[in-house]
Amino acid sequence: MLRKALLIAAFLCGGLATLFTMWIVVPAPSFTLFQVAVGASEWSLWFGAAGLAGAGLSLLARAAGSRRAAWVALSPGVLAVGLSLIPPFAGWRVARENDIALSPGQYFFGSPDNRSASVERTTETFATVEGQTLKLDVYLPGSKETTLRAAVIVVHGGSWSAGERSDYPLWNEWLAGQGYAVFDVDYRLAPQPNWQTATGDVKCAVGWVKANAGKFAVDPARVALLGRSAGGHLALLAAYSTNESALPPSCAAPDASVRAVVSLYAPTDLKWGYEHPANRRVLDGPGKIRDFTGGTPASAPETIRLASATTHVKAQSPPTLLFHGGRDQLVSDRHMTLLTERLSQHNVPHRALLIPYAQHAFDYNFDGWGSQLARPIILDFLSTHLGK
Q: What is the three-class DSSP state of 102?
């Protein structure tokens, strides 16, 4: 009876752990399983621990006399442990190459000391456009500085049709805790096509922050944009097209320029993205681009061109920081390469980091390996180009 119970427990622990960790390497057949893949990649060692428990139980079953069945039960647990080690090994290699110290303690137990409990959060309306009220959440350092601080304007993702401001609040609190004023903004998601209105709203937010800089003790000359996914695309597009007549601010914004821009796993070339979707079983990338722009590379080539960040790169473009995951199933990491090639051609200061194991939205786990890699690089970049 004991042998049977041990075997059942071993199969359950090892089998369930394998069912989760397999999505670290296997392309997902649906959006739901893509979400599982993100969790499996960013919390892999927890699933590995379950696999290790399954392997241990199988060995106990073997010791109790179930030799052949125990070896069979051992397999899924060992496989889960092996798969779970892919993210940390890949992450540590990137960390070593970039002289970054990763913390297993933070990975397993979190590190609230990295976030400021004294951050002040408020909400402001920055525009009302065509009947839609646009708001932003403000995160300010709790300490009272006598000098003006730099600002980071955050743009959320969601395939240009979903998502909401402050969807990554821990990151905003962390940035504010580092001394930056953070503004997490709305933009119009509907009606689509909204390539002009969404970009215009981001520029409107930049103008509003600069016009109200005194209220928040912000230096209007030291403002950066930071966006994720579709928000990363809009941040890049707004930063690179400051004086583009086809992409005007959606409100009075005499100065919508920024000093620097940070983008995480963003589409940068919509023509290439339309023709080379990452994983259509997870996300209909071409359909999202068609909804966003109102056309295709064949039916609306000029719109697709104007809506691509790569189009607007020039020597005067602001310094750029890019992140992408090597296993991104929503936006291919080729987008980062296409943009870095353009930035290099125009001698624009930039840095790009590919995290080989990482999925789209890898930074959702604030304490995961991907986030631990990204944070010191973001801080160094902002300090270099904005100061504090």
A: coil
